[in-house]
User: Fold these one by one.
Assistant:
Number 1:
Amino acid sequence: MSILLAARWGSVALMVIVLLMMSYILCMRAVLLMRERRYRKLSARWTPILLEGGASNPQPLPTVPPGERFLLLILWNTLRERNEQDAGICHWMGRVAAVTKIDGLARRLLRRRSVRKKLLGLVTLGQLRDRLEWPRLCQIAQSGHPLLSLAATQAIARIDPAAAAGTVVSLIVGHLNWPAAKIASILEDIGPERVSEPLARALLQAPESHRPGLIPFLAVCNYSTALPTVRRILREPHIDEVLAPCLHVIGKFGDRQDLPLLYRYLTHPRWHVRAVAAGCVGKMGRRADQEKLAPLLADREWWVRYRAAQAIVGLSPRDAQRLHDIQSTLGDRYARDILTQAIAEGARPAQSGTDLSPTGRMRIGAGR
Amino acid sequence: MMSFFLAAQWFFLLYFLALNAVYAMLILRALGGVARYMQSRDVAGLPHLLGGFAPPVTIVIPARNEDANILRTLHSLQQHYPEYEIVVVNDGSTDRTLEVLTAAYSLKPFPEAYRARLKTRPVRAIYQSTVDPRLRVIDKEQGGRGDAVNAGVNIAHYPWVCRVDADSILQRDSLMLIVEPLLEDPTVVACGGTIRVANGCKSQDGLFVEADLPKRPLVLFQVIEYLRAFMYGRMGWSPMNAHLIISGAFGIYHKETFVAAGGYRCDTVGEDMELIVRLHRTLSAQRKSYRITFVPEPICWSTVPDDIGKLRRQRIRWQVGLAESLAMNRGLMFHKEGSFVGWFAYPFTVFFEWLGPVVETCGYLLVIIGFALGVVSLSVFITFMLLAAGFGILLSTCALLLEEISFHLYKRPRHILVLFAVAVLENFGYRQLNTLWRTAAVFQHLHRGARARLARRKQECRA
């Protein structure tokens, strides 16, 4: 009987909870619709003002009620990002932010508990190049929160790239679990001329196990820093895991002085090293290198055969006779087939199955 | 008799409490997951931030007798994405699928050095489009969807393979969104997208335009089911790296991991689920650091059955697929390296997803029989029914709440009211019908298994 009673009250309680939840959902929807209406109105009024950056005689700015300042901040960020390339508009939007005091709001948001609001504050300060909260930004960048620390690092890089380069590189070394694509994007924001030296230094001082994760970022650096760093790593005793990322950097800069080094790796026991080396030789080599690549057409690994075939075709793309001559010397059926395919593909730019770069592409090379 | 009913009453009560406790846990995890996702989506939106770093992707579309849909699907794959190729696999179609493709994309035979890393039914020819060099078509003998995808993976150039069903509708940025977890976490080996019901929605030239609700009640019930399945089913398991399925309609896989696992199996009707359970089993046994994850944003819209016969067949197929996937990977259950998935998600799926319909049917039968025999009073009968319906409505309302705090795709207030009504009404008839079909599927699978074992034993005796 007691179970029955509990079940009866349980079902009543369930119904009450369901009704409360449904009412809550309806209230949320009402608030959302109201907010969207307010945002639409605000957007209709402020979008032309924010985008009149180029106008010679801009109109005086309307006052912003404190309750609408947060919505204006969202609109400001949306338009700022959309018009990133237009310096006139960006400059004008910076002035608008100061007059409407949304810069102050952004600074205050850094002290809010909501992660969402903090993120909005960080992005805005980055866009505004606002240095006033620099120590606070550095503090957030060093925090353990994955999103906030990354957003703060990005803001620092935008606000003062010159001052940020060293700090950002040390933050990256300490946060190798950050998404590689985002790190590369931040380094690109800072610029190769500023980031090259600190990155190369950090790389050479980093423990051996950290290097494979850091080397791909050399692709963002200057030619004059990246190549000597890679060559030095390859000259010194190293673990095998650094090879493919190093070769990728060499391939990216394409200095023919490195060809002898690449030839050495065409016979490396790790297949992805052979594949990257073949791709690099195809990019940087001469016609005579086709002979060095031909044995790889019969490699036991398909990707090595494919990269070698692409490289051979790429070294004499318009010389069909030469390619057919090479093909006729091949005894192995797989080698002939792969070369036929590469010829048919018309020596299009190499597709990136084993490409290594500071993106997800390097994953395949990791041979997981 | 009385003591039997009392024991049964306790059994069902405890089963019911355990099931709903897990659901409550999943809902809480999903709430946290949705909140985190919405935060990161706010300001670190992928399309503008990571566009240049997205990995190249091979999209594989298995197509059998899809001459009516295939061009629309290919059109929807004109994605805002830096580098991708499309491989359509004509899986022994008996209609004009290949002719339609040849005419529209000017296909020409291509001397591809086909590399059969995954065994498939024989490939007749490989074609390349002369209009769009990113498109290749494999023409092969029929082997089923899994076999077709395996063939596509064999000629994929890129390190990530995205499977898309030929009747799916994608958004322009779907591909960009589904690769986000791969960029965020290098241990991700597979990622699924959220599927929603396309019936009733507005689309143009194969691309999704606006969400709307379908008119037919049968389809409306499925809208709520999909919301439940994805909003807290997948979203709840995902943070624990424990969800056991990536829908075949839209998912992305690390190619080398896919190949190393042996690709899709062709001897099951639930090849999509079986692969994910197998990946969990093999990768955890190898002590590899991996994640199988999920994007909560609705990025793929799929047409669902709009008549009861098709729905029945689909549900039976799903339940048989579930049973086969679990049976083929039973080694995962309580495996010492199985972590959360082996010790919790897999047993939960066995006891509550596979056996759940049988228990639910027995519960209904027992109450009805008891009521007929006079052992169960009318008030107990009504309380039982109210409690069962109440939990059902609560779970659906939680899914609606999650949808409201995240994507609120159904824009009009009328939509919410309709969904509330559907969340209530589905508990009176539709849910029980589904349970019956799934129960039938459980026995069908057991019967088929017994027959197979018998055949094997006879063969062994003869040998």
Number 2:
Amino acid sequence: MNTEEYNTCIDLHSDKVYRFILKNIHDKEIAKDIIQDSYEKMWINHKNIDFAKSKTYLFTTAYHTMIDLIRKNNKKEDLNNVEEEIFSQSGQYSDLKEILNKAMNFLPEDQRAVIMLRDYEGYSYEEIGEITSLNESQVKVYIYRARMFLKQYIGKMELVI
Amino acid sequence: MKISRDNYEIFFVDYIDGKLSHNDMAELMIFLSQNPDLASELENFELISIEPVKISFDEKNKLKEIPYKAIIINNDNFDEICIKKIEGDLNHSESIEFEKYLLKHPDKEKDYTLYTKTKLTPDCSIEYENKLSLKKYNLSVHNKKWLYASMSVAASVIIILYFYFSPFNNNIKVKPKYIAENKKNNTDIKHSKKANKSKDILLHKDNISIANNEDIKTEKTDNKKEILHARNTKNIKPTIDNNIKSADVHREYYKTDMIETKSIKLLAYKITDSDLPALSLKRVPKIVTQYKQKKEEPKTLAVIAKSQITKMFLNRKSKVDFNYNKLTFWNIADALVNSISKLTDNKMKLENTYNSKGELETFAFSTEKITMSKKVKNK
């Protein structure tokens, strides 16, 4: 990959990677730092990276950096530990996206990342496995569990509302 | 068929495979006896054998035609089938079966609808703003050479213009150190009848701090014999101490981090005034200069940065400026010339020479092809 291709990669993929990281981290500054670190690593190895695989390389690097950070900060929450009364608000949830964004926070980081890669970027199971260092079966299992959880969450919200 | 030299090979193969009839076998033997060269060929033919290699084809199942089996959807696997449907993992026939199932079980439609809502959509309003800061730019080799050549020319022009247009002088302005003293003598403090109305003469034993243009301030002590007090300042004129050598000037000039204190100490004395016979002063005050380290004041980031930049230039072991604590034009010019020299692989130098007084005499700028020097007129 030459310099021009590297700059093209920035134009094409920086928004997607940033969106992916931000949805996981919920911190703009940290997300920006991760993006910068990922692109710096890409630049260091740019001569060895094929332009066609640059997106996967980028997502892989950003994902691993993000996961390390999340596990370091230990920000996992379990829906079962959260009481339902928290979600009953005076105002109604009119936006499904809002509900889903909230629900995503309760997913484990690997399930969240996997389902985002599947729905946001349309990666195949194999590609997701390559990015997240999981095998195809594990990816399918994570997606299955994530969808089950989101469906239950939405169902509970509808009951509350 | 009769065996001949045109078709014997067929019989040979059949012979090795053991497929020759009794009659053909006899006929072959007769033929071989009549053709001994072919008999040896048959012997060699028998020696050649290839053992079978154990290789198996692993993907047999993919080639097999699997008879169609309708998927069985029930409460146990309904969630899994729903997710497969959303993920697009059901084939055409399975999708049809699934839709049939939903028609038969309308209560399951709601669950399937919830599953369809779990499909995330990206928020395209989120954009990374600092793309420009990530981008890299390369100068081509041709552009690099042009750039460095331009920089060299520009730097040379600036240096040449400075040489010819800036006023060079060696004024090392030294703050005059005013010392309170008597009209006549630097070291002796005399008591004059005309000027001094008071007869009290006090000589202070302790150090007296003297700053520029300040009058001497003393404190009274109990010991009148040893205290000399100059009340009438009319007789005391500040004068410049011309006895300070040039070396002293340089040392004091750069010691900006030191506090200078001058003290009057009694080292020797003599009686110079007959009006004071009672006093047996035998000591004469002498001015002693002492330097103490300034207390470091809290530094701001800008101050620290400035000092680091100054050190960076001064650490180049520049010989262009004897002022070792202050960043001057020569330091910057020398650093610039060195940088350009390294970038362009041209040997460029900036050299100065000084006289014994530390005054700039000549300066020279030299490259591989050109050398320029100029003498400086000193005042």
Number 3:
Amino acid sequence: MSLDAVLQTFYVEAQEHLESMENVLLKMDEGECNDEMLNDIFRSAHTIKGSAGIFGLDHIVNFTHVVENVLDRARDKKIAVEKDLVDVIFKCRDHIQSLVSVNLEEFTAQADLQKIDKDLLEALTPWASEESNQAVKQNTSPTENLSEHKPTDDEDNGKLWHISLRLSGDCLRNGMDPLSFIKFLTSLGEIKHIETIVDNFPSSADFDAETLYFAYEISLLSDASLEEIENTFMFVQDDSDITILPPSAKIDDYLSLIDKLPEENQRLGDILVSCGSLTKHSLEQALISQNKESAEAEKPTDTHKLGQLLTEQQKVPEAVVNAALSKQQQSKSQATEGKQIRIDSNRLDNLINLIGELVINQQRIDLLSKGSKNPPLVEAVDDFENFTNQIRDAALSLRMVPIGGTFQRFKRLVRDTAQELGKEVELTIEGADTELDRLMVEKLGDPLTHIVRNAMDHGLESIEKRQAVGKNIKGQLKLSAYHEASHIVIAISDDGNGIDKERVRAKAIEKGIINSDSQLTDNELFHLIFHPGFSTAAAVTNLSGRGVGMDVVKRNVEALQGSIDINSQAGVGSEFKIRLPLTLAIIDGFHVEAKGTHFIIPQATIIECIDLANHQDIKARHCINLRGDMIPYLSMSEIFNLTPCQQHSIENKVIEHEDKRELVIVQFGSDVAGIAVDSLHGEIQTVVKPLGPIFKALKGIGGSSLLGNGEIAFILDVPQLIELAVGNEIANKVSAAEDISNQDK
Amino acid sequence: MAEIKITQKRNNSTEIVISGELTIYCVMEVFQQHFQQINLKELTLFKLGNISEIDTAGVQLLIMLMKLVKEQNSSYQIASLGEALADYSNLFQLNRYFIDFEEISVSTSAKEEELQ
């Protein structure tokens, strides 16, 4: 791993810790506070500080150190966690985020960042200073104070950790100098002794100047926890041998360490003695007993029995030792049980692309095998197809992430926005575990932010208004996610005022978006808010009201092959429903053809296929009567102005408009429409390749795909086509009505 | 980048002067170019007073040189020790190599002048 890669890991992990801090702070802001939460937030700050220290990011270390101290005092109950403190820690958390995004030189050059740094450190002073202890200390009982006091010598002995480091030989080459770790350990306590072991040096002929040959035995006097000390080595622990013995470690732990390490036992024993971790006498006694026992038993040394013996002799508190060891083992077993690895998302994208190529090739083989009329080959290719499908699904699932992470970020947004607007808002999250393609999750952030801000700014009423209409003063905002067919629905709802239809109408007329005599349904009226430049807010605020938000929302959602619906009821509230496909990379499609041009219809949207000739086609209306329902349909050849291609048309036969025979009935949300094509070719796995920007204006096409025979097929954007069909149907209705009235005249 | 000057002296000694930054970025080149094939005389005199920056890779190189001295049955003296190296030596308690090494030949600037 190069230094850049390790730094990248630091940034990613720092971001995770900042998110974790934010989540805990949000709970604290709601009045919830317990030891576990304080430990969590402290650990996050501490880990950021520790990791930053390893990279020499002193600006982060210096600031986070003070925050960490304040949090530590809160953990020790020296200061109370009040709203004021939570507010300041919130700001500190944001500042740490800013600090993480700059390096030391950039920080030194940015006066505004330094000013914030200084201001926040000043703001923390009331909680950082010793005087602030008193208020809480007065509440503690005299016995508690007495129990805290221990004689200095005992205290020191009780804090002496032993750290044995056999770091990876590649450590230096990867940009990790043990110097950084040792320097950081000095921030956790006092290094009593370091023994730098040089036994592993090779002869001069084999010496590689970039390989680490040093090994270290360290005794550290520290109040830090095992986890804190372990975190110092988090970037090298995977390929290094690191043993941390707690202050309460038994002598057999040290003997196990001596046995485990490659150096000679007696020498290591001496090193431990010089570190102060063992006394010379106890080491000698232990080694003599160990040798004696092993000689008697004529078998390899049983250090465990010896350890028990010595523990008994020394009367080491067994419970304390066991607790410390079980904690150590627990943390190690948790690390292995999790079995999670961090992968660069580009690598994952590359894998998906390669699987896309595999799918295309598989289709080609499938085509060739069917042409060969060789049954065993066809059977083998069928099996191959089955496995390809499984590989495809497994690979796509790797890129699926829960939407919860995105939703959680809105808690902070809602808190800050509510404060800014002077409103009280409660955010409820449902379906946080619902999984969605990572690429979509990333692109959803902006649209969701716009909708949430709009809901809070325009939807939810002020406290006074809510009181006046008898509503709870706390406005309710709900973010929920759930699966619906092969789509995911993300709903944002509020219990506010609802969309004022009259105001929307008036504004649309004023802006020239609609005519004053236009007759629009509620849904059409609501969709006007997505029109570029539309805004009903009387005043432009920082949050919304510039009229640039909602049209961006619609564009972003459509770019993800999704759609957005609005339900709103005056005085009751509004709901925005974003409907998205589960993935954009590889989909199951249905292959159709019109005038020699190939199209793919996403299979999840298809209800059924019917023979158009068997159904009554209402003339000039592009509408059929399907079991009593009027279904509008679109003819592909008309929509895309297709002319028969000599090369691709079936047997050079020109298929006329009237010849279209097949109708694929599709559904999106509650809308149903038909797509008229010349022929149906069946199910096909489709690797979605985006169309270039030049085709952006082309409505109804969501992408392209390569067929097994090398031809290109266009993937239909069903929501856009349905919109088009429904729009045409309305226009046809109007013109039919006009015709009738003209005939009457 | 470190600057290396090696002088084979008539008094059966080898003088090695290292100055500048002795870090991971140059240790490989320094070792291969100057020390891999070196022949040391009876006494090796290190002048390390002008090392402005040193890291673990640099210190390892110096300790390797001291092992090389031993391999070639030479003995060594340190005529001067820069601040960066002294700090590292103190932190990692490596003084037995750089200050309190055998044959007690702790050299100060004054001693350096004497030897010259």
Number 4:
Amino acid sequence: MNRFREPLFVLLLVFFLQSCAGWAKNKDYHPFDASGLDKLIPGKSTATQVTEMLGAPSEIVKLSNGNAYIYRRSLSKGTGLWLLIVSFGNYDKHYDQIVIFFDKKNTMTHYGVTLDAHKAAYGLPF
Amino acid sequence: MVSPFKVFPFLVYSFLVGSLITGCVSYRVIKVVEGRSVSNIFEEFRVGATTLKEALETLGAPDQVAELEGKDVLIYRRSLLSNSGLSFGIPLTDIWGPGFDFSAYGELVRYDLLLLSFTPEGILSEIASAKGSRYPYFKTILSD
């Protein structure tokens, strides 16, 4: 058993001497605040009120009975690990999104909210 | 002269083993996930009954909105990219000239998708979904 100790130690030493790790974080940031959304009333709030509250949308889509304003931002977290001959990379991207639907008179009819950007996480690919 | 193997055995072995192994074989695994998981809503949603308001309350904001043939389409999407690569080579360039190198790489992007189509009145008219992530990486990438 002792004769394996030295090669094993050498292998472990090599493993750690030639290893490295890295982390990265990317933000596609738009400064909208979703906390005031409950002040918007379907059937009453207008597109002007929405843009006053949330700012300019990231995207506007024409729909069959009006428009949809889309507000979107993202957070990505990346992890890299290099262990001698094996390397691992993981990249996790999540979004905060608000989609607000307006009728042809620019009155808000519905909205959907997903606030998931905080769920982006560092990690390994398994 | 005293052999360096006797004076600094660990350092010499480390250098030799490290140089040989890192020059010969490498394997990499990369995963990229974008978006949240897509719910299975077939038991919850009913064509002709579920409204746009209910869908938005249940699923949140869609990743894409579009008008298609007079209907409003919401798309929920999650993508999963898997990449792996194996490289094997013997770096003989300095002592011999030509070297030997073999490498194999594969990249697979799978999508979980949910498409909901609504009438202009906001009633669900069509559901379509695909669960690409249930397909295993190696079996899928090696198939034709």
